[in-house]
Design brief:
Blueprint lengths: L1 H24 L1 H6 L8 H19 L5 H24 L8 H21 L8
Helix pairs in contact: 1-3, 3-4, 4-5
């Protein structure tokens, strides 16, 4: 099980590094899904991208894995309103279709549980 957990940690970490990089490569995508009640859209897209990259990298370092996992959980909770906003305004990303918009909401919970797995200390004998 330890090997599976380690492999999945790298998958999760690299997923967040890649997602964070997209904030800089395609910021227009993230800007259009920002809820209008939030200020500083450009800055929030930039900061969330920085945090995604940094936390993804820190997840891969054993000394910082637990802290990074808690950070990812906090980040996923913080960005959840944008997912709700996009679900309510599906015309912002019409290529996804209604099913994909709906699937994105519980997927956030899956990512939170996945990150939470790395907040637990390893119990090796």
């Amino acid at each position: 099980m330890a090997i599976v957990k380690t492999v999945l940690k790298f998958v999760l970490g690299l997923f967040f590094v890649g997602a964070g990089e997209m904030h800089f490569l395609r910021p227009e995508f993230y800007l259009k899904i920002m809820p209008p009640y939030l200020p500083w859209h450009w800055e929030l897209v930039f900061v969330s991208g920085v945090f995604e990259v940094a936390l993804g990298v820190l997840l891969l370092i054993p000394l910082t894995t637990r802290l990074a996992a808690w950070g990812l959980i906090a980040l996923l909770i913080a960005i959840f309103p944008a997912n709700i906003y996009v679900y309510q305004n599906q015309e912002l990303i019409p290529d996804f279709g209604p099913t994909m918009h709906l699937v994105r909401l519980p997927l956030q919970g899956v990512l939170i549980l996945w990150a939470w797995w790395y907040t637990r200390p390893d119990r090796r004998v």
